[in-house]
Design a protein that fits this description.
Layout (H helix, E strand, L loop, with lengths): L1 H13 L4 H8 L3 H7 L9 H11 L3 H15 L11 H12 L2 E6 L10 H11 L5 H21 L2 E7 H5 L5 H14 L5 E6 L8 H4 L2 E5 L4 E6 L17 E4 L1
Parallel strand pairs: 1-2, 2-3, 5-6
Antiparallel strand pairs: 1-4, 4-5
């Protein structure tokens, strides 16, 4: 979360001013500024960040906040012990820090709601080239995401297409347990689940596919979904939002 927010704040601070001009003023390469503004890029050295803040006239409490964000960005997340970095790591960090999660899924149950057996069956079917070890590692990551989500209890609103509950993943028994699991989660006060029935016909999400909106307080993060629950965030936009692909 700290790394994403630092990148976003630095991009917003620069605005439309040319990187080359700023880089020359603080004696760094323009590519360094590009990497600092990328959530999966580099974290600026303390002296470089201070030089950048001095250039923009940022001082006092605001400057301390930037330095605090830099320290947060350097902290390791639990997902890194699984070798996850880059876009997916950024997504997990944002999800872990979110106070509100909105999710739409068209073909399967949302990852945070998936029972363990359903996860294995889904991954085995959608990633036939993956070995047992890789699948188990992915299951462990998803179960840890669920644990963090259950502890943090962010307001969660999921819309699931009717096709997802009719698609029998892993056999009838696995699917029965999965649907029972979703029903049990619906009893939680912070969870809202809605079913999008076939009768609705064409709808806006048919053009976008699965997506997630994460409310992390200072800004919202939107991610567009694909398979394998991976995230490849784009660069933070000036409006405080970033787009990514995630499952």
């Amino acid at each position: 979360m700290g790394r994403w927010q630092l990148a976003h704040e630095l991009a917003s601070l620069r605005g439309d001013r040319p990187r080359d001009h700023i880089a020359k003023a603080i004696d760094v390469a323009p590519s360094s500024i590009t990497r600092w503004e990328d959530p999966s890029g580099a974290i600026p050295r303390r002296r470089d960040l201070q030089a950048l803040l001095d250039f923009f006239g940022v001082a006092g409490e605001d400057a301390r906040r930037f330095m605090d964000l830099r320290e947060q960005a350097r902290e390791s997340g639990w997902w890194q012990r699984y070798g996850i970095k880059g876009g997916y790591g950024t997504y997990i960090g944002l999800e872990s820090a979110a106070r509100k999660i909105q999710r739409y899924d068209a073909v399967h149950i949302p990852g945070l709601f998936q029972a363990e057996e359903y996860q294995r069956a889904l991954m085995a079917g959608s990633m036939p080239e993956a070995g047992k070890e890789e699948i188990e590692s992915r299951v462990q990551v998803r179960m840890e995401r669920q644990r963090v989500w259950a502890e943090n209890r962010p307001q969660t609103w999921a819309i699931i297409d009717e096709a997802a509950i009719h698609r029998v993943v892993g056999g009838v028994e696995v699917m029965r347990k999965q649907l029972e699991h979703v029903v049990s989660l619906m009893e939680e006060p912070h969870v809202t689940v809605q079913l999008l029935p076939y009768e609705v016909g064409a709808h806006a999400a048919m053009e976008t596919g699965p997506f997630t909106v994460l409310d992390v307080g200072r800004a919202q993060c939107r991610s567009r979904g694909a398979t394998q629950e991976r995230a490849v965030p784009g660069r933070p936009s000036r409006g405080g939002r970033t787009r990514s692909r995630a499952r």
